[in-house]
Amino acid sequence: MTDSGKVSVEIKDGIGMATFFHPRKNSLPGSLLRELVNAITELGKNGNARVIILASEGDGPFCAGASFDELLSIKNYEQGKEFFMGFARVILAMKKVPKFVVARVHGKTVGGGIGLISGTDYALALNSASIKLSELALGIGPFVIEPAVVNKIGLSAFRELTIDTGWRTAEWAKNHGLFAEKFDKVEELDLAISSLAKKLTESSPEAMKELKAVFWEGTENWDQLLEKRAEISGKLVLSDFTKKYIEAFRTK
Question: What CATH architecture is 6-185?
Answer without folding.
Answer: Alpha-Beta Complex (3.90)
